[in-house]
Every structure is written in structure tokens, then in C-alpha cells.
Amino acid sequence: MTMASTEDEELAFGRFALWPRRRVLLADGAAVELGARAFDLLEVLVRADGELVTKETLLDRVWPGVVVEENNLHAQVAAIRRVFGPDRDVLLTVAGRGYRLALPVLRRLVAEGARGDSGSLPQLSVIVLPFASLGGGAGEDQLADGVTESLTTDLAQALVGGVVVSRSTAVAYRDRAVTARRIGEELGVRYLLEGSVAAQADRIRVNAQLIDATTDTHLWAERFDHPRDGDALAAQDAIVGRLTRMAVLRIIDADARRAGAEAAPDAAGLALRAWAAATTARMSAEGFGAARDMFRHALSLDPGSLEAAAGLAEAETYAVMNGLTPASEREARLAEAQDLADRVLAARPDHLGALRARAVALRALGRFQRAILAAEAVLALCPGDPPACREVGLNQLYLGDPEEAVRRFRQADLSGPHDPARWTWMQGLGRALMQMGRDAEAVAALRLAVEGNPAWARGHALLAAALWLNGEHPEARDHYAEFARRVPDAEARVPSRSSPVPADRISEAYHRHDARILRALGDLEAGLPKQ
Question: Which pLDDT does position 363 carry in this prediction?
């Protein structure tokens, strides 16, 4: 069974919007009549996004395989201009060559059956303004342009259910003294992301800020330095990965707050609120329960919602992997999550949420190599995605390669140093470092994991083990006592009883590397006061 997409693409320009799937042209939100040939011609011009389209191209695209006179083309252009009325001049004639549309085009997805309203602000819409180069040299200008272009591309992939204004439209605002509110009104976008890049001899300094265009207020700003080690593309990927992740988190949070303020949010609004709740849940039973309920409610309102289906798939897989699902329901919940992810990917093969859910489900089943491939598919679309890097790292751990796992966990942290889910890759990093005998480094990583989510009981156990192996026995006993307080059942504290993956699929190398951790936990358990 596949999930039929209930979304159409909207191509909005000025007061008009084109819905190609339903072959509808809207003017000020109302449908207007346009003949079939004229509609095809207009779609070609709109998709060109302001670029010249030659007469030869138009004849070939609108009348494929048919020889027609050029006056037929002139007649269809005239039909479009009649529909445009007072805006007829936005369809420009380039003498002797062809035509072009002199308006920026905004692309977004709209629900099947939705009422056209080109004057309303689309949810999750953002424009990446050209990043300024503060160095002034050709290399610095190239870096700033590269960051802008890659950030636009990666945000378009990562901002599920949203729309990112094309790079060609954004360039028109370079060096223009225009307020955020004005840009929002002109393009119908809700958020602006802007910044600057300054390259020095040994580092690259990046400033970025996210602005709500409807209120002209700052939602987030960050300044950070990245080492300049000679690999310009690697530096660019790291910078873009970090900016993409933080911008997506902030935009989703802001739009979720908007949806929460509505008396009766629709399926898209509920899915947004659920994504925000899942992101900040830190694997708590209450937080994930609320997120799952909202995703299910969104699906009941719109069974075809790809965002709600992908979100529920992710929420269910994470709940299973973190012990928030009863053992008796584990198999059924994983099967449901896989089915949801498969249905979303059948309609949209590049959906990051569904790809992440598939990767986690495969890890839960012990299919580590396939899980890595699923996570790598996310990274191919959005390099540096922290959850995908974490998934590769965890699977590499189970395959017995802690060195590669450490590299992937550090890659996740490079893109998500302030991410609410940071503790999830820090605990993996700590475990991998312990397996390699680098206990002091493991202590530092696991302190960050516990600080990021002190309610996660097993984080205290892992930190206790690292401290014990590093010779810090008094503090190790304190953290293990905290673990025992949170997990009072001694049987439940046995590591083999809480493995999130099938033990028989874990590599022998992993078991060998993990033996010293298990011995430390055994010593700490034996040292607990007798009840």
C-alpha cells in the first residue's frame, strides 16, 4: 500500500498563484479561466523563475511534436496578458528572442482541496539572503556565496513541509536597504536568514541571525569560529550543517508556537507542534507521549499528511529504542513505523524524517549495515545532519568499529553543539571512547550527556562507569547510586536486559570492546549498600 500524496505545488508570483497538478490559476485567491495551451505556456514561464525562455523552447514545450506557426504562440501570450489585466506588463517580450516573467516566484506545497489564498503567509517559509563577505578578497567572496547557496539547498531539504525561496530570487536583495517586513510582504515569506563570513589566516568567523519577517524581530542569532585548515569545502559543509540544523529547530519552534496559539490548529499546525514537542522531549515518556498523540490527531484530520506520518514514524522508533514502549508492543510499533516511513517515501523519496525513521527502525532490528545506508541517504541530501551522523555512529559501534563511531559522533557535534538532542550523540561518543580505553575523554563527553538530559537514568550509569575506569571512584559511586535510585529494580539494571538491539546481531568485536565497561558496572553494582 502506498500513500498517495495529497499535496500540490503552488507557484506564487505577485498576486497570482499557479497550481500545476490541478491546473488552476488563482488571482487574488480566486480561480480564473485560462485555456489549456495558455496554461502550459504560463507554467513554463513561471518555472523559468525570471529567466528568458526562447520562442523555440516555448513552441517545443507547449506543442511537443507538432509543427505550428509562431502566431499561435503570440495568441496564447495575448490570452495570458488579458487574464493578468493591469499586471499584463509583468510578462515581458524580449524582441526577437522570447519571453520572460518579471516577478519572483515562491514555491511551496499546499494541501489537496485547500482554498487558494496567495495573500496569506505560507507556513515554514524562509529566504536565505546573500551572506556578506567581510574579508573583501575573491576567496572570501566565494566562501560567502558558497555558504549561501549550500544553506539554501540544505534548508530546502531539511525544512520538511516548508518552502525556501530560490537563490535567484534572494540575490535580487543583495545590498538593498530593505526591511525584513518589506521583504516578507513582497515575497510572502515568514522568516529571513542572513549573516556574514569573515575569513582570517587560521579561522573563519560566521555571524548569522534569523528574523521573523511579520514582526521584524530577531528569533535567533549566533556567532562562531571554524578552523581554517585548508579544506575549504569541508569547512563550508561544517558551517552550513551547523546553520541548517539551528535554523530548522528555531523555525519549527516559532511556527509551532503560532499553531499553538490557534483555537483549532489544522493537521499541518498539529504536526508542527508535535515535531517541536518531540525535539524537546529528551526521550521522556510524557514528552514523547504528547508528540505521538498530536501526530496521530493530525493524521486523523488529514490521513494523507506526509509530515504527520513521518513524524509518527520517527516518534515510534525513538520510543522503542529508548524503552518507552512496553516490550509486548515493541514489534507492532516498529512494524507500524516502518509502514508509515515506507508510505511517505513512496510519495516523496527524499523525505528526511521518513529516512531517519527507517534508519532507526533498521537499527532496532539489528540490520546495522542497512541502517547505515539509510542514514547516509539523509547525509547525501543534508550533509552534517546531526541525527543521521549519530545513527551512523551507533551502528558502527555495534559493528565493532569504535574509531569510526567516534568520528561520526564528533561530526554530529560539529553541526549541533547547541542541539537539544546533543546528549544522544554525546552518550554514544562516551561509550565509544571507553571501548577504546580513552576514559578521561569519555568522562568529559558523558558529563555533557548527563547535563543535557539528567533525567535519562542510563546516562548516570555510563558516566559512573567512565569515572570508575578513570580512577575517580567516589564520584563514580555517587552517579551509580543515582542510577540505582532511578532504576530501583536490580534486574532492570542488568545491561543485557536493557539492550535496545538484538544481542545476537551485535558483532563479537563490540562485545570484546564493551567487556571493560560491563566489568566497571558490575563492580559498581556490587558496591551498592545491601537492602
Answer: 95
Pick from 340, 357, 335: nearest CA to 305? 340
User: Could you tell me if 360 and 338 are in contact, meaning their C-beta atoms sit under 8 angstroms apart?
Assistant: no
Residues forming a β-bridge with 133: 197
How far apart are alpha carbons 226 and 235 in whole angstroms? Answer: 7
CB 210 within 8 A of CB 193: yes
Residues 500, 362 contacting (CB under 8 angstroms): no
- C-alpha distances out from residue 442 to 207, 224, 416, 432, 449, Å: 31, 25, 19, 8, 10
Q: What is the CA radius of gyration of the chain?
A: 26
Banded model confidence at residue 264, pLDDT cuts 50, 70, 90? low
For the record, the C-alpha cell of 225 comes out as 569560529
Copy the grid coordinates of residue 176: 538593498
Q: Is 124 helix (H, G, I), strand (E, B) or coil?
A: coil
Place of cell 545513527: 391
Rounded Cα distance between 189 and 127, Å, is 7
For range 321-330, the mean pLDDT: 86
- Per residue in 91-104, pLDDT (tens digit) is 999 988 999 998 88
Q: Note the pLDDT tens digit of each residue in 40-73.
A: 999 999 999 888 999 999 999 998 888 888 888 9
Q: Assess whether pLDDT exceeds 60 at residue 114.
A: no
Rounded to 10°, the helix 306-321/352-364 angle is 30
The Cα-based distances of 183 to 104, 107, 178, 188, 323 in angstroms read 12, 16, 7, 8, 47
Q: Which of 133, 242, 141, 254 is nearest to 192 (CA)?
A: 254
Angle at the Cα of 499 from the Cα atoms of 290 and 330, rounded to 5 degrees: 45
- Specify the 3-state DSSP secondary structure of 48: coil
